[in-house]
Amino acid sequence: GENVEQHPSTLSVQEGDSAVIKCTYSDSASNYFPWYKQELGKGPQLIIDIRSNVGEKKDQRIAVTLNKTAKHFSLHITETQPEDSAVYFCAAPHNTDKLIFGTGTRLQVFP
Amino acid sequence: ETGVTQTPRHLVMGMTNKKSLKCEQHLGHNAMYWYKQSAKKPLELMFVYNFKEQTENNSVPSRFSPECPNSSHLFLHLHTLQPEDSALYLCASSQTLLRGGGTDTQYFGPGTRLTVL
Q1: Is the CB of residue A48 less than 8 Å away from at least one CB of chain B?
Q2: Which chain B residues contact residue A53 at CB under 8 A?
Q3: E-state strands within chain B
Q4: Distance from A98 to chain B by nearest Cα, in Å?
């Protein structure tokens, strides 16, 4: 079945620096890769997603890149701010129906 | 905030109790999901409903019983739970299933924090 690995599990950066979180997946048929942000006491919220027909997608300070050959995708956050502190999850579909989530990355942005 | 509400937000129950979790989505979506989120483990999909019909049961023990009376409401009935069932239970909805190829983004509710004593 689909296996999604996410690294690192924790990431601490200084405000203004960039943060990169990486995920790998195993199902070569996967074609949709969302990233979710979960703040304390809240459910995960979609922040960006990418489909397999593009290699990169940007939304202001957030970007996602996809390498289908290597089966990995990454989340890039530039000019980090304290409010970016949260747990971030990547996901990939399995059997085109279920989303399999990574184990999460706790990002801390220090002022 | 996301259009998906869950009640209660917190629940403490004994192993012999029976309780229910409720989820409601105001987005006009057709698919609804239950997930379990435990510490240091990935989100685990439990059940999927599409147009009120169950399409996925991810080998969930029978002490968890889902109910989907319509596309807007989803319940999770709990009975004779174990302490290891303590977790955050998340509900989500999407316009279609992933296989539908449409707007399949999943929107999550805030979750119910369940503690089983």
Answers
A1: no
A2: none
A3: 4-7, 10-13, 18-25, 31-37, 44-50, 53-57, 64-70, 73-79, 87-94, 107-108, 112-116
A4: 7
| B51-94 confidence digits (pLDDT tens) | 999 988 889 999 999 999 999 999 999 999 999 999 999 999 99
> What are the φ and ψ backbone dihedral angles of B98, each rounded to 5 degrees?
-55, -40
% of chain A surpassing 70 pLDDT: 97
- The H-or-E segment that residue A34 falls in is strand A32-38
Cβ pair B99:A103 closer than 8 A: no
* Non-local CB neighbours of A64 within 8 Å, separated by 6+ positions: A33, A35, A48, A49, A50, A56, A57, A73, A74, A75, A76
Min distance B79 CA to chain A CA atoms (Å): 24
From the list A32, A44, A98, the residue facing B108 with the nearest CB is A44
